[in-house]
Design a protein that fits this description.
Helix content: 40-55%
Number of strands: 15
Structural class: alpha/beta
Strand content: 15-25%
CATH class of the largest domain: Alpha Beta
Strand order of the largest sheet: 2-10-9-8-5-3-4
CATH superfamily of the largest domain: Type I PLP-dependent aspartate aminotransferase-like (Major domain)
Distance between the termini: 31 Å
Number of helices: 14
Shape: globular
CATH architecture of the largest domain: 3-Layer(aba) Sandwich
Order of helices and strands: EHHEHEHEHEEEHEHEEHHHHEEHEEEHH
Number of domains: 2
Radius of gyration: 21 Å
């Protein structure tokens, strides 16, 4: 018997109650039934986002919502700064260039986080910059930047800040209103415990001023002005993925019932335990500023990361993630988002120990489990 055990940094494990809810018969989407779902989901999204700002639901992945935000927040005459410390940070600069926006793309070594002072220096050197975009939790490198410090800098300078929070909202502490984040985006298949297909974007009043005044190029489909107009009536401008939204109301309620600070604590404990376990059995944590939503390990010499991932899946049903671009074959990643708890993390560590032992890696069996158990005993 093989179970599917998702430890990928998206899609993540979906609770059975959510799957059951999405299997129920559904009505047409232009009905009070659907509008009631949207109203319920939006209220809960504000709690999960920790914001008083409007939160829009978009049918499409996080990339879709980010594309809409990039175009909406960068009218003609604006200049955008993108901070690119991984595969996803690079994507936002690529989108900006594809649409012909004036963009400065600042590269950051993969596995390191941008120093907030770098953002401050860019803004001081080039006052024409009107908008900054970055990835809070860079999934490809399992690295977390100091969003709070950067938000303080952009707010003081009067610049808009767009944050890709696709692997942080719902897993890590994020406070858009308090931190000066004007636009925050996440996706359904990460910490919100749903299949792929939805994205969510919170927008500050300051950002709305720019978006509404923007007479330039907007995305036709992910047009935030159109989405806002429909959201005021608990609706969407185009056909919604209403079965996903039905499941969303259940998944969000689970997070709300747990309490966001408790969610952050649970995810943080799993990440800390996994890192401690890896180090105890001779693995190196790749990131110099690790994110708690996903952990990246560098395999020891002589151990093939892709072979490890293949064996984890074949023997235990555990699906993990590899490295991207120049990190392919160098790292493997284990996610802590979604419907996972300390026992799930312990099971993944036990399976990893067995696979590495078979691969000939020299360590004491059980050392990783012992290290993880100690973390859980102290933090949960």
């Amino acid at each position: 018997m093989k179970k599917i055990r998702l430890y990928t940094p998206g899609p993540c494990q979906v609770p059975e109650d959510v799957l059951i809810e999405m299997a129920r018969p559904f009505e047409h989407h232009r009905t009070e039934w659907f509008r009631d779902l949207m109203k319920d989901a939006t209220t809960k999204l504000q709690t999960v986002f920790q914001t008083r700002n409007e939160v829009l639901t978009i049918t499409g992945s996080g990339t879709a919502a980010c594309e809409g935000a990039i175009l909406g927040c960068n009218p003609p005459g604006s200049k955008m700064l993108t901070i690119e410390g991984g595969k996803f940070g690079q994507r936002w600069g690529e989108i900006a260039e594809q649409y012909g926006l004036d963009v400065i793309r600042h590269p950051v070594e993969w596995g390191t986080a941008v120093d907030p002072q770098v953002v401050a220096d860019h803004l001081a050197k080039d006052p024409a910059i009107t908008c900054v975009m970055l990835t809070h939790s860079e999934t490809s490198t399992a690295t977390l930047c100091d969003l709070q410090a950067i938000g303080k800098i952009t707010s003081a300078a009067g610049k808009l800040l767009i944050a890709d929070c696709i692997t942080s909202i719902g897993a890590l502490e994020v406070r858009p209103d308090d931190w000066g984040v004007d636009v925050a985006v996440t996706g359904s298949q990460k910490s919100l415990m749903l299949p792929p297909g939805l994205s969510f974007v919170s927008v500050s009043p300051r950002a709305w001023e720019t978006i509404e005044a923007n007479k330039g190029q907007h995305s036709y489909y992910v047009n935030l002005n159109k989405a806002r107009k429909s959201a005021a009536k608990n609706d969407t401008p185009y056909t919604p993925a209403h079965v996903l939204i039905r499941g969303l109301t259940v998944a969000l309620q689970m997070l709300v019932d747990e309490g966001m600070e408790n969610v952050w604590k649970r995810v943080g404990a799993m990440a800390a335990a996994t890192r401690a376990a890896g180090e105890a059995i001779g693995l190196s944590v790749f990131s110099q500023r690790p994110s708690d939503s996903v952990t990246a390990f560098t395999a020891p010499d002589g151990v093939d990361t892709e072979a490890v991932r293949k064996e984890l899946k074949a023997r235990f049903g555990i699906q993990s993630a590899g490295g991207q671009d120049h990190l392919k074959g160098r790292i493997f990643r284990i996610g802590h988002m979604g419907y996972l708890d300390s026992l799930d993390a312990t099971a993944a560590i036990a399976a990893l120990e067995q696979v590495l032992h078979r691969a000939g890696h020299n360590f004491e069996l059980g050392a990783g489990l012992a290290a993880a158990q100690k973390v859980f005993a102290e933090r949960l």
